[in-house]
Amino acid sequence: MSDDSTKIFSRGEEFLQLFRKGAAFTKELLEENQRLRRTLVEVDHGQRSAARNPEEWGKLRLELVNRIHSLEEDYETLRERLVQVESENQHFAERYLEIEEENNNLANLYVASYQLHSTLDLDEVLKIIIEIVINLIGAEVFSVYLLDDATELLKPVACEGANVEDFPHCALGEGVMGKAVSSTETTCWNEPRSDDYSQPIVCIPLSVQRCPIGAIAIYSLLQQKDGFSALDHELFTVLGGHAATAVFAAKLYSQSERKLNTIQGFIDLLTR
Amino acid sequence: MDRRQVLIVEDSPTMRQLLVFALRRLKGVEIVEAQDGMDGLRKISSDHFDLALIDINMPVMDGLKLIRLIRGEESLKDIPIVVITTEGAKEDRERALTLGADEYLTKPIQANRVLAVARSLLKLD
């Protein structure tokens, strides 16, 4: 029984709270109503007074006309400001797109040079060069040549899209490619593809301190690739310098490792 | 903020690094890398992913086989898949989409395009 009483009591308290809130809200509404009535009476009084007296009416009319002119001026100012802000936004949007593209290009160049210098193993370096040329430039058939110091011949050591044996050896300074490599400047021919492996569409000499050590020759591009962009030319520059350094360092490391092993072998013999 | 997890299945470290650079710009996205189809299958089976970017030509297991296996698995069949490949022919694209890929991007990739596709499939603002 006492439980029922407690429940009834608490329900009663809840209803009482609700009624109090309702009463407070109604009181607020009544006060707002009173205020609006007073404002309405004042406005009505002003208009009636102006209607009875022509001078008052004239003043009111002038006041309203001035107010309209002022609002029209404000409108014009805001409209001009809006046009200006829209123009600035357009400029910022264009600039944002430029910066985003620049950022993307820098990312490509960073990744290319990071990967090239991430290893001292020559086979790995050649593999990375191939990845860069396929994935970042979009070449389909190409070959990587290294210069044989003894014979001064450019020999293909890695390729994509054909067999290494299909690519010709060429002498430095002779033939289309040999001359392009001697110049140590990237050379582009205005052809979409070449089936003659002695005549690439792009030759990127690999050079260290202006001495050629090899080249990348591109013969055709992936189907979806429409020519070379500004980024591609930047990548050619990266490859020409960084790939060359990476290859040079890998070869040096390999030679020094062999020499170290030989010397270690002699030392082991002598100290036995 | 809900964290989304994206799996990149690509055998080229250069491409993986480039994709990571692009996707890192998305807020609230964690990136996991796999270096071939088998590695990708192991990872996608052992954790929840909201998106997978898959290369086609990979050693051990190629991307098309991986997609077939993913779509054949009840718990994985709804994961959005983007194919990223050098194959630009129309029939290659149709084959991948028929197998269940949601988008098909060709190399060389544009980072903006990868971001736009990832945003759309992850339903990010």
Word description of this protein:
The complex is a heterodimer of chains A (about 270) and B (about 120). Chain A is of the alpha+beta class. Chain A has a domain at about 120-260: GAF domain (Beta-Lactamase, 2-Layer Sandwich). Chain A has 5 helices and 6 strands. Chain A has helices at about 1-50, 55-115, 120-135, 175-185, 230-270, and strands at about 140-150, 155-160, 170, 185-190, 200-210, 210-220. Chain A has a 6-stranded antiparallel beta sheet, sandwiched between helices. In chain A, strand 1 and strand 2 (about 155-160) form a beta hairpin. The model of chain A has no long low-confidence stretch (mean pLDDT about 90). By secondary structure, chain B is an alpha/beta fold. Chain B has a single domain (about 5-120), classed as 3-Layer(aba) Sandwich (Rossmann fold). Chain B contains 5 helices and 5 strands, in the order E-H-E-H-E-H-E-H-E-H. Chain B has helices spanning about 15-25, 35-45, 65-70, 90-100, 110-120, and strands at about 5-10, 30-35, 50-55, 80-85, 105. Chain B has a 5-stranded parallel beta sheet, sandwiched between helices. Chain B starts with a strand and ends with a helix. The model of chain B has no long low-confidence stretch (mean pLDDT about 95). Classes of the chains: A alpha+beta (about 270), B alpha/beta (about 120). At the A-B interface, helix 2 and helix 3 of A face helix 1 of B.
List the helices and strands and how they pair.
The complex is a heterodimer of chains A (272) and B (125).
Chain A (H helix, E strand, L loop, with lengths): L1 H51 L1 H63 L5 H16 L1 E10 L4 E8 L9 E2 L3 H9 L3 E2 L13 E7 L2 E11 L8 H41 L2
Antiparallel strand pairs in A: 1-2, 1-6, 2-3, 4-5, 5-6
Helix pairs in contact in A: 1-2, 2-3, 2-5, 3-5
Chain B lengths: L3 E6 L3 H11 L5 E6 L2 H10 L4 E5 L7 H10 L8 E5 L4 H10 L3 E4 L4 H12 L3
Parallel strand pairs in B: 1-2, 1-3, 3-4, 4-5
> What's the overall geometry of chain A?
elongated
What is the helix/strand order of chain B?
EHEHEHEHEH
SSE topology string of chain A = HHHEEEHEEEH
For this structure, the quaternary state is heterodimer
Low-confidence segments of chain B? none
Helical/strand content category of chain A:
alpha+beta
CATH level-two architecture of chain B:
3-Layer(aba) Sandwich
Helix share bin of chain A: 55-70%
